[in-house]
Write a structure and sequence with these properties.
This protein is α+β, with helices and mostly antiparallel strands. It has 6 helices and 5 strands, in the order αβαααβββαβα. It has one domain. The chain has helices spanning about 10-40, 60-70, 75-80, 105, 160-175, 185-200; strands at about 60, 115-120, 130-135, 155, 180. Helix 1 packs across helix 2 (about 60-70) and helix 1 (about 10-40) packs antiparallel against helix 5.
Length: about 200
Amino acid sequence: MTNEEKPVQREPLKQLKQLKQLKQLHDDIDRRASRVAAQNAGRLQCRRGCSSCCVDELTVFEVEASRIVEANGTLLREGTPHPVGVCAFLDAEGACRIYADRPYVCRTQGLPLRWYDSDSGGEPGSDSGEVIEVRDICELNIAGPALEQLPESACWEIGPTESVLAGIQSRLDGGESRRVSLRSLFASTQDDRRSVDDTQ
């Protein structure tokens, strides 16, 4: 069993505190993401059932997996993951079955993104040392003003929120940064894994 496939380990008191912090962070993300989405309302094509960014084999920090487990016990015990190829939590119509408890990465999908990176000068493996801003957006939402023309407030900045989330996870696992595969949360996938292990 790999580190990404380990079931969520519960440490009740510590986990309750980190889950509370996570929910507050998710609420803050939703508020900020809504403001960014409002500034891009004319270009965003994201709708219920739009699932091109709902990729398979996604892993999340253990604390985010814990939120999903806490709120979706029946689904995880009795439900069936979506067939391999897209996110295990999609239903037959391509809608998210854990939308209220979805992880951070799913809460900003489709928005214009901005982050800082080192400039390679166009040469693979080279690094000029200059820090540049990079912008990107889902290909379904490209139509509209050039990303470079958008004000910073109209883009989701990658980096600061990831650091806060990593801090919550670090306080839970002492800096191990444990991650969990979303697909592995379903009891049926755990049963399948045990069956394979038993035959080896």
